[in-house]
Design a protein that fits this description.
The protein has 245 residues and is an alpha/beta fold. It is built from seven helices and ten strands.
Length: 245
Amino acid sequence: MRMILPQAGGELDDFELAEAYAFPRERWLRTNMVMSADGAGALDGLSGGLSAAGDKRVFGILRVLADVVLVGSGTAEAESYKPARPRPALASLRAGRPATATIAVISGSLDLDLDSPLFTEAPPDARTIVITREKASPELRAAAAKTADVIVAGQDKVDLAAALDALADRGLSRVNCEGGPHLLTQVAAAGLLDELTLTLSPTLAGPGAGRIVAGAAFAAERMTLTQVLAEDGYLFCRYLTARNS
């Protein structure tokens, strides 16, 4: 993988790649998505269908750098999420922090498979977090609390700003949001997005495939392209939102 913007360069090792994706400040929310050349956010219903080795490498680096990985419950279920895996060769990048980022799952309904590895295999120092709303079933909240840490943010629906404040209070302020499309829409609509890291896959997904955003419309925002890497026909782009450009 090599840099082509802001300036062309040679092949990047993992530490150079981590430097390229370093968080600009302590409190930051980036969203990591993959998209086909014709605008699809998934292939056969899964984002992994658009991925390749380089995309998975960037995905892993972004997780190493993050304090917490934020994901919607639908994506966590569809993509069979598990706890982040340790990367011993990159352990120095997590000095002073747990060996892996914490996974935080947003679920207003708490319709979760609490017996899945995402909950049962999470390490004690990076226990999976469930973010829900006040109106969620007390019984389901109690059940979730047996295998996860539970954050209640918002009354009728999950308040993302309050959820991010609660995560920051736990020392989890560098957020890597992995979607899916509905969560990206909510984050952008709430003005909480700092950065979009977007992998452009050299794939034609065809008509009918959903985009990387879904749900209610929000005001368009022009972003600034600050970095592009390339490998095997894939482009790895970093866009900053207007308030961070």
